[in-house]
Protein 1
Amino acid sequence: MKVSELIAELECYDEDADVHFAYGAGDYWHTTLAPKVSRVFTGTVTNTDYHGTDKLLDGDEHDDEVVLRRVVVIE
């Protein structure tokens, strides 16, 4: 999703509504957790074959062999 698409999606919601994000807990009961968004920031991600998705890099963690992308992160 692009930032412009997120903005368009959010336009129909109450501006004063709290914002949460959902993710699977990975537990036996297949619980979906939904903590409140605490911050939005720009981060760097790369794909990880082990997890099958992107991972957020912290600080100077990188490998010259991988593709890095700057993204907006909602935490």
Note: The CA atoms of residues 51 and 60 lie 21 Å apart.
Protein 2
Amino acid sequence: MINVMPEKDKAGNVIQNISAFRSKFLKEGSLFRRKHGYKITIPAGQSLTYDINVPYNQCKINKLEVIDANALDRIDLMVLDTPTGTISKVPNFMLNQFGFGVVVSSLLYSDKSDYDADLIKDMKVRVIYYNDSAEEKTVGINVIFHEVKA
């Protein structure tokens, strides 16, 4: 049976669950924001697949930034399993896709999710950048991880 009544404390007050990103503390440990930056160069009229290796034993991700993109270029964003297939039992298996031909803007494109994705060490965040212009383009990619430390 599912309990649809809100949980209450001993005084009868409704307990409100707060999202992980409204609090630095989780059951699993404390969150520490870690921002990583990368530069990639995409040939004219082509796409480039860039894998970012997750460097933390346990972390969350909820934001990606693209700096100095061509207006109207596109990106795909996905998460891949570890090289040993820790989650799926298949090495580098695509576990989920979060961006599908997302159109970016020039200067700064930023996308933040209201909820996070859980990652473990050696998973990959895959960014596929589609340079739709007639010139080679170098862009910056920032990934915001939130390391979980016990």
Note: The chain has no helices and nine strands.
Protein 3
Amino acid sequence: MSTSHVPPLRELPARRQEARKEHLLSEISGTHRRRAVLLLPLFVCNRRMAVLAPAFGLLMIGILVAATTTDWISSQPSRKSVVAAGDSTPTQPDMMDVNRPMVTAHDGNAALYATMRGPDRYCVVAVAPWKRPTTLSQDEVCIPGGTFVVGVVGVRSSRDGRQTYLVAGRTTDPEARTIHFSDPSGRTVTRNVGVAGFFLAVVRTEMRACAAGSWTPTFSVRGVGSQELMRTTTKLTSARAAPSTSCTFAAPHATRTVPR
């Protein structure tokens, strides 16, 4: 292309050059203001997050502390804590720590916590969805020494007339695997033996425990292969007359056993 057709460079008149300069400066300053407006919410959000972060952290700490205070209730029995029928050897008492609650037996969504207080001395607490003490000592029952201890550690009567009884105890026989007894209606109840010989049975029935007089079942302690090791008969409830709606429930107590 011939340069003869390119118009020569010319400077703008002084008045137009000054106007052009002001226009450019106004555009630049306007862009900075818009950026500041866009960045301001982000800066405010960051400041809010900086304020909320410690508050959120304190909230989570509070939740964790609250959960820790009732951790002994929410603990679930581990495979090492509770044995199933047919296992070779259940966990022995020397596996328990003194003054530390431990899940020793369970039945469905109910659990039995036991605390060793000394040589051959234990205190137990039964926990169920409808029975959740806030502290260990609130509902703790200390059981006496004996070859076989059993008693009622929880009672519930629902509106539809169904009864729920928590029966708990302990056997000192190291070969024990299962406990067998009958509910108030005569139906056989079978439960596994857990840690240190403890057991728990959730007994549900439409028949009240004292409807036919005192509830006096025979307990059979059995080993591997369902071999009977010992048996005992004891009262779980007492009634003045039958039928009676007023029952006295026996707390865990030692019984006289008969070796087989």
Note: The helical segments are 14-69, 71-74.
